[in-house]
Design a protein that fits this description.
The complex is a heterodimer of chains A (336) and B (302). Chain A is built from 14 helices and no strands. Chain A is mainly alpha-helical. Chain A has a single domain, classed as MetI-like (MetI-like fold, Orthogonal Bundle), CATH 1.10.3720. In chain A, helix 1 runs antiparallel to helix 13 and helix 12 runs antiparallel to helix 13. The chains are: A mainly alpha (336), B mainly alpha (302).
């Protein structure tokens, strides 16, 4: 087991270094030099420019700059944003709770709907339910979520007026100090209606972001359940006279969960990609919309730092899934 | 009708022997979803080819006087513009018809690019193993570690926004799928007797790669390519929507959505129909891909 863990942990090092190299190259391949970028349109005399290049260490060989960059990243220094002048690290983690809150709600929504749907489809294989559910899952899987979000806004926000169009909470509410997890902050504050407001802002974005994971998890649950339902021990359980619910819901589902858990973990990357689009549509103030705005504003240190941080998070989550899989399924450990 | 005097002898007829291709076609034909998808795809191709003939208007002709005309069935709509007009007074239907050219082109180019590069990398990895294999596979891991849309955005930022660069970006994010599939298939095939026989009879590496092994690895690659078209269309549309893909006034579906999203309250049609076009196209290729997988690999049949 220890060998398995060490092997997996060592494997992510080159991956992370590669991601760092990618983001480092990004800043150096962009047309125009960084000094000119910092100054905007201003003209600069060559002597002063050379001095500035030396000041920022940009006159050294590229590989030296790369190792320097790695060293800074290791210390949590990702540079400063050109726009806000704040450290990128601070900007990122101020906004990250918003993205995390959205991603968690989306995932909860996806899991709560997908697993019962997948189980039902497997249990009633070939029936109308099965076809309808799997058709819906395939449609969800094919959904352009940026359009899906607009469509939901059109229906629920504009026509029915049930949910707000954008943002995290009504402007009437304000929290001096908080965790930046809006649901928690609004619940803890004594302002009436704050929690309901925060919740209503979360509903549509969570549905939009959760749609593709929902479809993937439902399809996976169905096929995992089908496999397990054909096993001898399930037949034994049925033969013993256990109720259908006990057989399907407890005996079978438990074993079918192993691949499903893996798939759920692997959806984190999809969630981060989807968050970029979802936050853009709902003006959700998270790291996704921050990243896109940084791109529009040509704030390259923010883009560089943000991409590296997101990549790091996804790599860590994937590692945890890998390790968890090893714990759940001992046969994996021996394999390399 | 049968004459009682003739004796009918029933000869047991062996099931006609089908070539693998016929067998696949037969299996695909029995899959209603896949056939529906194939029909939709053929219609799309027809739309793309005949766009100049069937679209009622020039897709980029602007006319502010008729901007945001509702679709024909709505009050104030007219059959001259069946699906209404966009904020610049361009015909939505014509733009969607012309958009099919872009989407199919994006799908084909992206898949061709990523398939050919991924295939080569996978063949090299699977055949030579060792350092080349480790290097290639680590590189693929890095690409896979980043959310594909995020990586595509980064590459577009690097290369500059535009349809061509968006296609390159999406193609790069898709390479690992083909490389991994090819490598896995090659490694399975290499242990088989026919490869060893071919090696013994003196076939060189290139011949082994392309004549012996490759044709036998094609099944998973065909499935992945079909599914790849759908993800390429989707990702390219997402980039277009973010303003990083095809630039206005190109009638690309994602770009069309971006152009009219501010008018969503007043003109649902300018937003709804391009999205339906994306969904239907992506769904069709996904359905066909699923059908092909069932047909090509009965073991995987769910």
């Amino acid at each position: 087991m220890i060998r398995f863990v060490v092997h997996r942990v060592l494997l992510i090092i080159p991956t992370f270094l590669g991601a760092a190299l990618l983001t480092f190259t990004l800043i150096h391949l962009i047309p125009g030099d960084p000094i000119q970028m910092m100054l905007g349109e201003k003209v600069i005399d060559p002597v002063r420019k050379a001095a500035m290049l030396a000041q920022y260490g940009l006159d050294r060989p590229l590989y030296v700059q790369f190792f320097d960059y790695l060293w800074q990243v290791a210390q949590g220094d990702l540079g400063k944003s050109i726009v806000t002048k704040n450290p990128v690290w601070d900007d990122f983690f101020t906004l990250f709770p918003a993205t995390l809150e959205l991603a968690v709600c989306a995932m909860v929504f996806a899991i709560v709907v997908a697993i019962p749907a997948g189980v039902l489809a497997a249990e009633k294989r070939g029936s109308v339910y099965d076809h309808a559910l799997m058709g819906a899952a395939l449609t969800g899987y094919s959904m352009p979520i940026f359009w899906w979000g607009l469509l939901l806004i059109l229906l629920f926000s504009i026509h029915l007026g049930w949910t707000p169009v954008s943002g995290r909470i009504d402007l009437d509410y304000y929290f001096d100090e908080g965790t930046n997890f809006m649901l928690w902050d609004s619940l803890m504050s004594d302002q009436e209606g704050a929690f309901v407001s925060a919740l209503s802002h979360l509903i549509l974005p969570s549905i939009v972001l959760g749609t593709i994971p929902l479809a993937v998890i439902a399809r996976m649950t169905r096929s995992a359940m089908l496999e397990v339902l054909g096993e001898d021990y399930v037949r034994t359980a049925r033969a013993k006279g256990l109720s259908g619910f006990r057989v399907v819901g407890i005996h079978a589902l438990r074993n079918a969960m192993i691949p499903v858990v893996t798939v759920i973990g692997l959806q984190v990357g999809t969630l981060m990609g989807g968050a970029i689009l979802t936050e853009n549509i709902f003006s959700w103030p998270g790291v996704g919309s921050w990243l896109v705005n940084s791109i529009y504003q040509r704030d390259y240190p923010s883009v560089q730092g943000g991409v590296l941080l997101i990549a790091g998070l996804v790599i860590l989550v994937n590692l945890s899934v890998d390790l968890l899989y090893g714990v759940l399924n001992p046969r994996i450990r021996g394999r390399r | 009708m049968t004459d009682a005097t003739t004796t009918v002898v029933t000869v047991p007829v062996a099931a006609p022997l089908l070539t693998p291709r016929q067998e696949i076609w037969r299996s695909l034909k029995s899959n209603r979803g896949a056939m529906a998808a194939l029909t939709v795809i053929l219609l799309l191709i027809l739309c793309a080819v005949l766009a100049p003939l069937i679209s009622p208007h020039d897709p980029s002709a602007q006319n502010v006087d008729i901007a945001l005309t509702p679709p024909a069935w709505d009050e104030g709509g007219s059959w001259a513009y069946p699906l209404g007009t966009d904020p610049l007074g361009r015909d939505v239907l014509s733009r969607i018809i012309y958009g099919s050219q872009y989407s199919l082109m994006i799908g084909c180019i992206v898949v061709t690019l990523s398939l050919s590069i991924g295939l080569l990398l996978g063949l090299v990895s699977g055949f030579y193993r060792g350092t080349a294999d480790s290097l290639i596979m680590r590189l693929m891991d890095i690409i896979l570690a980043l959310p594909s849309l995020l990586l595509a955005i980064v590459i577009v930022v690097l290369l500059g926004a535009g349809l061509r660069n968006a296609m390159i970006a999406v193609a790069i994010t898709n390479i690992p799928h083909y490389a991994r599939l090819t490598r896995a298939a090659v490694m399975t095939e290499l242990t088989k007797d026919y490869v060893i026989a071919s090696k013994v009879s003196g076939a060189g590496t290139l011949r082994l790669m392309f004549r012996a092994v490759l044709p036998n690895c094609l099944a998973p690659l065909i499935v992945q390519s079909t599914l790849g078209i759908s993800s390429a269309v989707l990702d390219a549309a997402a980039l277009g929507f973010l303003g990083l893909g095809a630039q206005p006034p190109t009638p690309e579906w994602g770009t069309m959505l971006a152009d009219s999203r501010q008018y969503i309250e007043r003109a649902y049609w300018a937003v709804t129909f391009p999205g339906i076009a994306i969904l239907v196209t992506v769904l069709a290729f996904n359905l066909l891909g699923d059908g092909l997988r069932d047909a090509l690999d009965p073991k995987l049949k769910r």
